[in-house]
Structure formats: structure tokens, C-alpha cells
Amino acid sequence: MLHTPITAFYGGLLGITFMYLSILVIKGRRSAKISLGDGGNSHFLGIIRAHANFAEYVPLILILMLIAEINLAHTGVLHATGVALLIGRIVHAYGLKHHSGASWQRIAGMMLTFGALIGLSVQNIVFLY
């Protein structure tokens, strides 16, 4: 049976999402003429943090997903964590871009991201035994 590379699929979608967040940061820097930092602009800080937070979590989770995939994890587990990560990062970024302070989008986005992180971590540990 032919194996479809699941991690590659979600990695591609997440790469496109990261590019979008990168463009938002670049546009924000150009329009506000800010070369470094946030220039004291709390809205722009949210955009920067959405981009940075994505870069902090996504690589590790994709590595865990790839390890699980190499170890022949159930495709349902891989798709569930891939969808949770993708939706979690999009919702979280939306919350950071549109709200200062806590928002349901940020909380839901982090819960989905943490679910993918914990789920894949446990999946990989279980493969050891």
C-alpha cells in the first residue's frame, strides 16, 4: 500500500501560514518605519508575537510528527495532531493580531497547540515500549 506523507502535507500548509505571518510583519515594519522591535506599537507587537510564537512551537511539533510518522503511527493520530496544530496556530495568530491581552482565540489556539505537542510526545514515548 502506498504511504502518503502526512507530515509533508501539514508542513506545507504550516509553511504557507508562516509566510503569511512573515508578510504581515514586513508590511507592519514598512508602514510604521520600524526596523527593529515594535516601536512601542502594541498592535504591531501582537503581529510580531504571532509570528514568533509560530516559529517557537511549529518546528518542534513537526519534528515530533515526523518521528511518529516514521515509526508508523496511526494516520488518524497524525491527521488529528496536524489539524489541531494548523487550526491552533491560525486561531492563536488571529487572536494576537486582533486583540490585546487575553482572548478566547489565543486560549483556544494554545490549547490546540499544546494538545498536538503533548499528544505527539506521548505517542513517541509509547513507541519505545
UniProtKB/TrEMBL annotation:
UniProt keyword Transmembrane present: yes
Gene3D superfamilies: Membrane associated eicosanoid/glutathione metabolism-like domain
Major location (coarse): membrane
Transmembrane segments: 6-26, 47-70, 107-128
Superkingdom, taxonomy of origin: Bacteria
Localisation: Membrane
UniProt lineage: Bacteria, Pseudomonadati, Pseudomonadota, Gammaproteobacteria, Alteromonadales
Cellular component aspect of the GO annotation: membrane
Name under which the protein is recorded: Inner membrane protein yecN
Entry keyword annotation includes Transmembrane helix: yes
Short name of any one Pfam family annotated for the protein: MAPEG
Keyword terms, alphabetized: Membrane, Transmembrane, Transmembrane helix
